[in-house]
Design a protein that fits this description.
The complex is a heterodimer of chains A (about 110) and B (about 110).
Chain A: E1 5-7, E2 10-13, E3 19-24, E4 31-37, E5 44-50, E6 53-57, E7 64-68, E8 74-78, E9 87-94, E10 104-105, E11 109-113
Parallel strand pairs in A: 2-11
Antiparallel strand pairs in A: 1-3, 3-8, 4-5, 4-9, 5-6, 7-8, 9-10, 9-11
Chain B: E1 3-6, E2 11-14, E3 19-26, E4 32-38, E5 45-51, E6 56-59, E7 62-67, E8 72-77, E9 86-92, E10 106-111
Parallel strand pairs in B: 2-10
Antiparallel strand pairs in B: 1-3, 3-8, 4-5, 4-9, 6-7, 7-8, 9-10
The chains are: A mainly beta (about 110), B mainly beta (about 110).
């Protein structure tokens, strides 16, 4: 039973570029959340997708956008990259109403901006 | 705004001792709180969930307490082992939404 998978594992971009990160949720899960984790900090919530719609959003600018596909997989897009966007991007999956249930995390995509 | 504070300094203890990690929160009242473990270069892994009406919860060598009056959760690892060395994150819920607000984490180092 595959857990949450994310791709790519590492990515290097330059300022101003755009990036797309991908996530496949754990089998049986239909909700995907994205988090940004800066070095030495805890994960920060970006947004959550369910039924192919953004359901909740954290305090991130519109440069951060996402998408969920019918098979529940998800993408995170970041436009006009800034140096401060360098971080580990984590995807977490769960079932609808999982607010009182554990979330299952992937191992993340390490994004470096030069 | 909602704020979570964990010990920012690393906790160093000797193998076999009990490790105690603290999580304090302000400006809200979570209905439940989760603890996760994170190893370097890996995603967080769920350990325990405790609800506001539960004072204490145990799982093997792990114990979590939840004091809604003090707005604090304590995470204990008894008979600690070097394999317990990791960063531990607390995450109170944000209003039954599925959104987790994480503390910055406490790094535990267990020395043999």
């Amino acid at each position: 039973d595959a857990g949450v998978t994310q791709s790519p594992t590492h990515l290097i971009k330059t300022r101003g570029q755009q990036v797309t990160l991908r996530c496949s949720p754990k089998s049986g899960h239909d909700t995907v959340s994205w988090y940004q984790q800066a070095l030495g900090q805890g994960p920060q919530f970006i947004f959550q997708y369910y039924e192919e719609e953004e359901r909740q959003r954290g305090n991130f600018p519109d440069r951060f956008s996402g998408h969920q596909f019918p098979n529940y997989s998800s993408e995170l897009n970041v436009n006009a990259l800034l140096l401060g966007d360098s971080a580990l991007y984590l995807c977490a999956s769960g079932s609808r109403g999982y607010s009182n249930q554990p979330q299952h995390f992937g191992d993340g995509t390490r994004l470096s901006i030069l | 705004s909602q704020k979570i504070e964990q010990n920012s300094e690393a906790l160093n203890i000797q193998e076999g001792k009990t490790a105690t990690l603290t999580c304090n929160y302000t400006n809200y009242s979570p209905a439940y709180l989760q603890w996760y473990r994170q190893d370097p270069g890996r995603g967080p892994v769920f350990l325990l969930l405790i609800r506001e009406n539960e004072k204490e919860k145990r799982k093997e060598r792990l114990k979590v307490t939840f004091d809604t009056t003090l707005k604090q959760s304590l995470f204990h690892i008894t008979a600690s082992q070097p394999a317990d060395s990791a960063t531990y994150l607390c995450a109170p819920d944000a209003g039954n939404t599925g959104k987790l607000i994480f503390g910055q984490g406490t790094t535990l180092q267990v020395k043999p």
